[in-house]
Amino acid sequence: MSSQHPGHESAFEPHHAHSHPGDAAGHGSFKSYMTGFILSVILTAIPFWLVMSGVLDSKLLTAVLVMGIGVVQIVVHVIYFLHMNARSEGGWTLMALIFTIIIVGIALAGSLWVMHHLNTNMMPMTHEMMKNMP
Amino acid sequence: MSQTQVQETEKPQFYLKEEHHPEHSTMLGFWLYLMSDCLIFAVLFATHGVVGRNYAAGPAPADLFDLNLIAINTAMLLFSSITYGFAMLQMERNAKMETLFWLGVTGVFGAIFLTLELYEFYHLIHEGAGPTRSAFLSSFFTLVGTHGLHVTFGIIWLITLMVQVSKHGLNPENRRRLMCLSMFWHFLDVIWIGVFSFVYLLGVLG
């Protein structure tokens, strides 16, 4: 029984060691800020150029590209400007972020989905819908 | 055997004693606040997504929005983000005057952004496209206005901290506050990515 005690102690040892390296949250270097900035400039310029010049014939493709690049740029900002990583605050900031993304996803997708169905089922028909009637 | 068992049960360990880091719990708490703010914006984005096409026979985004102005606005906010980053780097080097300088530059970029946004709002309302014109414009003014309000309070916070730093220097309290404002400022830039992509670019695209 008494031999179990030191084993008990050592089991908690790595926990203490872990609580210190995570302190480096919120620090960036000049290089990481510039990388983030240059990536952001490129990722901002592309969607503006796509919409303002209208190079793509397909509006749907342009819209998908604009939103896709927007998501990539948000990830770039979160990593390079907000210094998000799995280690900061012992992983709790990442946990909170993932939780928020799930809630935001449910709120956005749910609202659009439900209201789209309400629109198609209950609203008076527009001219376009009349034409598309079977 | 029974002797040692008694000794064991005398000091039961029910919890793990860990050191607390007050300064870091502030950062985590502020991050949680930002996440809740994120939910506010998510709801406003969802509202705009639902009613953003209801023009009430009024003007559509393609008639109203000047993408050149929005591009300049976006650049201003992006520049203010990187200059705030420079301020943080100077803070880590313990250079007070340089930190203040970059904070000032950040504030100027933020103020230009806000001026351009107010000019756009004034222009829209002057054209008869105010928030009462259609559901699209109501949700547009609410979403972009809420973001603008955040930037306004960010600038007030920035000026307050500049006064604090110039008076008391880069002490631990001011460093913590500057790091919180850093998160807030970069977070606003993240929200603006959603605004210009979803509201302006997709709106003009039709």
Topology readout:
The complex is a heterodimer of chains A (134) and B (206).
Chain A: H1 4-18, H2 30-53, H3 59-80, H4 92-122, H5 127-131
Helix pairs in contact in A: 2-3
Chain B: H1 2-10, H2 22-51, H3 61-64, H4 67-92, H5 96-126, H6 135-168, H7 172-205
Word description of this protein:
Chain A is mostly helical and 134 residues long. Chain A has two domains: 24-84; 90-134. Chain A is 72% helix and 0% strand. In chain A, helix 2 (30-53) runs antiparallel to helix 3 (59-80). The termini of chain A are far apart. The model of chain A is unreliable at 1-25 (pLDDT under 50). The mean pLDDT of chain B is 90. In chain B, helix 4 runs antiparallel to helix 7. In chain B, 82% of the residues lie in helices and 0% in strands. With 206 residues, chain B is an all-alpha fold. At the A-B interface, helix 1, helix 2, helix 3 and helix 4 of A face helix 1, helix 2, helix 4 and helix 7 of B.
Major pleated sheet of chain B: none
What fraction strand of chain B?
under 5%
Average pLDDT over all residues of chain B: 90
Query: Could you tell me how far the N terminus lies from the C terminus of chain B, measured between alpha carbons in angstroms?
Result: 81 Å
Please tell me how large the radius of gyration of chain B is: 24 Å
Strand fraction band of chain A? under 5%
Along the chain, the helix and strand elements of chain A come as HHHHH
User: DSSP helix count of chain B?
Assistant: 7
Query: What is the oligomer described by this structure?
Result: heterodimer
The name of the CATH architecture of the domain at 66-206 in chain B is Up-down Bundle
- Helical residue percent of chain A? over 70%
CATH class of the domain at 66-206 in chain B: Mainly Alpha
Please, what is the CATH homologous superfamily of the domain at 66-206 in chain B? Cytochrome c oxidase, subunit III, four-helix bundle
SSE-based structural type of chain B = mainly alpha
